[in-house]
Specification:
homodimer, 229 residues, mainly alpha, Methane Monooxygenase Hydroxylase, Chain G, domain 1
Amino acid sequence: MEHTSRQYERELRELKDKILLLGGTVELMIASSMRALLGRDSETARGVIASDPRVDEAELEIDHLCISLLALRQPAASDLRFITTALKIVTDLERIGDSTVNIAERAIELNEQPPLKPYIDVPRMASTAAGMVHQALDAFVNRNPDEAREVLAMDEGVDRLYVQIFRELLTYMIEDPKSTTRALGITFIAKYLERIADHATNIAQMVIFLCEGQDVRHSPAGRSPASGT
Amino acid sequence: MEHTSRQYERELRELKDKILLLGGTVELMIASSMRALLGRDSETARGVIASDPRVDEAELEIDHLCISLLALRQPAASDLRFITTALKIVTDLERIGDSTVNIAERAIELNEQPPLKPYIDVPRMASTAAGMVHQALDAFVNRNPDEAREVLAMDEGVDRLYVQIFRELLTYMIEDPKSTTRALGITFIAKYLERIADHATNIAQMVIFLCEGQDVRHSPAGRSPASGT
C-alpha cells in the first residue's frame, strides 16, 4: 500500500513535470516565432514548424498518463479534478503550439516582402502572452488561484495591444493599398498572439475553478472580450 | 447491483443527451449568426450574444456530470475513454459558441454600414461548418469512426472556401480602400467559421481516436492546414 501510494505520487509528479515541460516547449516556440519575424529569419520559422510534432507527441503522452491515472489509481476528489483539468489544459497547450506554427508560416511570407514598419507592439504582445502561459501553468501545478488571477489581468493588456495594432494596420491598408497584403499578414500574427493569450486565460480560469470551485470561466471578470476584431 | 448498473446506464445516456443538446444549441447559433449577417438583422445578432450564457452553463453541467461519473462509477476502460473524450469535446462546443458570438458582433458592425457585396461563399461555409458539428457529435454518441472521417473530408472544403473568400476580399481592399473596414469584417467572420470547422474537426479526430485508438489528430490525413490565412 505504501509502495502503491509512493508510485501514485510519482505518477502525479510525472504528470506535472510533463505539463511544465510541454509549457516550456510552447513558450520557446512563441519566442522563436517572434525571432523569425523580427529578425526576418525564415530558417528559425521553419524550425518552429518542425517542432510541432514534438508538441503533438507530448499531448498524447499526457493524455495517456491522465487516463491511466484515472483507470488504475481511482484518485480521490481533489486529485480527480486535478487530472481532469490536466486533460483539458493539455489541449490548450497543443493549440498554442499550433498558433506558433501559424505565426511562423506568416513570418515566412512576410520575410519575402520588404518590411512594412518596425515592430514594437507585436513583440510586446508575444512576451506578455508567453509570460501568461508560464504563469498559468505555475498556478496549475502549485494549485495557486492568486497566480492564476494575475493571468486574467494580463489578458486585458494583450487585448488592448491587439486593438491598437489592428487600428494602426488598418490605417496603413487604407492609406496605401500596396501595403494591404503585408498589413493583413501582421494583423493575423497579432490575432494568433491574442489567441495564445486566450488559451493561457482559459487555463488560468480552469485553475481558479480547480482551486476554489468558483467558475470564473463565464463571469465578467473571467472573460476576455474579443474586442476590436 | 442491477439497480446501480441501470443508474449508471442512465447517467451515460444523460451525458450523451446533454452533449447532443448543447451541439444543437451551437448549431442554431451558427444559423442565427448567419441570418443576422445576411438579413442585416442586428436584433437576431443580439439574440445570439444573449444565448451564450446558456452554452456556458451547459458546459459546466456536462463537466460536473463527467467528473461525478468518474468519481462514483469507476467506469471500465472503454467508458473511461468515452467520458474523458466528452470532457474535451464540451470545451470545443463552448468555444464554437464563442465564435458565433464573435460573428454576431461583427455582423452588428457590418449592418451599420452599406452592404459591400452579396454573400455567397460565407453562408455556404457556415452551413458546412454547422453540418460538421452535427455529424461529429453523431459520430461521438454512436462511436462511429466512419462518420467522423467524413467530417475530416468536409473540413478541406471549408478551408478551400476560406482561401477563396480571403482572396476575393483582399482584392476589394486593394482596389477600393474605402471598402477595407467592411472587407476586414467579413474576413474575420470567414475566419471564425473556419475556426468552428476546426473545432468540429478536432472533435471528429478525438472520436476516431476513441473508437480505434488510432491518433489521427496529428497525422497528415487528420490535420487541417491553416492554409492561405
